[in-house]
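Following up on my earlier thread - several people asked me to post the actual chain instead of describing it. Fair enough. Here it is, all 300 residues.
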Amino acid sequence: MDAANFSKKRKARTDPKGNGADKKTKHHRNKQGPKPWRTPKRNQEGPFKGLSIEPGDAGIWATCEKGKEGKCVGELRELLNEHAQRLYSIQTTDDGLDEPESIEAEIEKEVESMKQAKPEALFQSIKLDIPCVMFFKTREPVEPASFVQSLCKDASLSPKQSRSRWVKRLTPMARMGKASEQGLEEVARTVLQPYFGQDAGISRRFAIRSTIRNHSNLTRDIVISQVAAAVGPGHKVDLTDYDLLIIVEIYKNVCGMSVVGNDFEALKKYNLAEIYASKGLPKSASVGNPRAEQPTSSIL
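Reply from S.P.:
Thanks for posting it. Predicted structure:
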């Protein structure tokens, strides 16, 4: 090869306009293969229509030790399901301990079980961008207030039988709505009617407790004023000896409300860790850093 031809070939390889041998490099760059296929998000139907808290939802707030959110979700899901099974007599799935069958019969049974729809979950965890706090949506027959009260009562009577280690406070929410004055009014009207409406026919002593996280539009004073107005006349505020406690929780753009009984304080404000600690369980099950929740709370 003479010097002239060698010079031309070398120039072709290094041509900045992409001519000559550089086409091979371009071809290699473009031949990276198709993008990896990703499973499309499912358009959920039924009781849980999405993985977020929506107006009209019911559920349970929970707190845990910082850094233990993942473990707490799994632990709490199991705890809730076990208590629901006892409380509502929900049947468990077949454990497969039947009489021996032929291979053909076993295959047929397996195919038939695959065709059957799986039972809908009673509890659906919702991932939040706040440490130490989680939320579980619930569906019928679970009624959050009575369910949490029953769970805490069981823990107080026989705490050493519980497998809870990371879960701390549980806060039931009968209904969720938008975190606005109108949304709060709608939620209050729905939740408080059975307890304070004219049909109740009883004068009750009540208190209000609010917790506000990552929200600034609705202040504590606004919340207390609106909820007290929704209670209506004929009832009396009593901070220490109330018949009913109205719990209000606000997180970002959602608010929720529930009504609990006068055993709320005796049950350690539904704090499982404190219930266990009061029975002399190890410190690992006791209340952690009180700053973890970072709430803004008050009682009317």
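The chain has eight helices and ten strands. That should answer part of your original question.
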